[in-house]
Design goal:
203 residues; 8 helices
């Protein structure tokens, strides 16, 4: 069964003023759609066509070399963006509570320290990529990946990720990536992140 672009759970303008409607529309309907189209073309007729995206990404080294780059870039793009849409929302922002909040404080010292690490990883990512909060099998960690690489390829489970490709912010923020990252925390849906955290550590 071919992969498809998931519907957004909120309107394009729901994340304004932090992320503008036009950026959301282009990002979701054009960029994400292109990743899905190219991924489906790359795996059509192969044993990977009916696998989950997680299985495809964890098997990236087993995919034939002539298809591997296309699957890595577009499969990663599909997985990364699917998570990105899910962990944002119009009623976002604030700080995480419950067990996720405790785990963040225990690991990083405070929520503001986590924010600083995620922002720093995003600012320092040269070119295009992502900054992540992941479950690495034993606890939480912050990391950055280039292009559309996913932490899943490294055996880690992303629970929060911010896209630092220019297409994610350029219409509103131009070259001011730090300003975008600072504003982005206002749209994080902590309930969605907490659910991913619970699933990851019990998996």
């Amino acid at each position: 069964m071919a992969f498809s672009v998931p519907d957004l759970a909120y309107p394009f303008d729901a994340l304004e003023p932090h992320i503008d409607a036009r950026t959301m529309e282009i990002h979701h309907d054009k960029h994400h759609a292109a990743y899905v189209t190219n991924l489906n073309a790359a795996i059509e007729g192969t044993e990977w066509a009916n696998q989950s995206i997680e299985t495809v990404l964890t098997s990236i080294d087993s995919i034939p070399e002539d298809k591997r780059a296309a699957v890595r870039n577009n499969g990663g793009g599909h997985a990364n963006h699917t998570l990105f849409w899910e962990i944002m929302g119009p009623d976002g922002g604030g700080e995480p509570s419950g067990e996720l909040g405790v785990a963040i404080s225990d690991t990083f010292g405070s929520f503001s320290d986590l924010q600083a690490q995620v922002n720093d990883a995003g600012v320092k990512r040269f070119g295009s990529g992502w900054s992540w909060l992941v479950w690495d099998g034993t606890g939480l960690a912050v990391l950055s990946t280039p292009n559309q690489d996913s932490p899943v390829m490294e055996g880690k489970t992303p629970i929060l990720g911010v896209d630092v490709w220019e297409h994610a912010y350029y219409l509103s923020y131009q070259n001011r990536r730090p300003d975008y990252l600072a504003a982005w925390w206002n749209v994080v849906n902590w309930d969605a992140v907490a659910a991913k955290f619970d699933t990851a550590r019990s998996g």
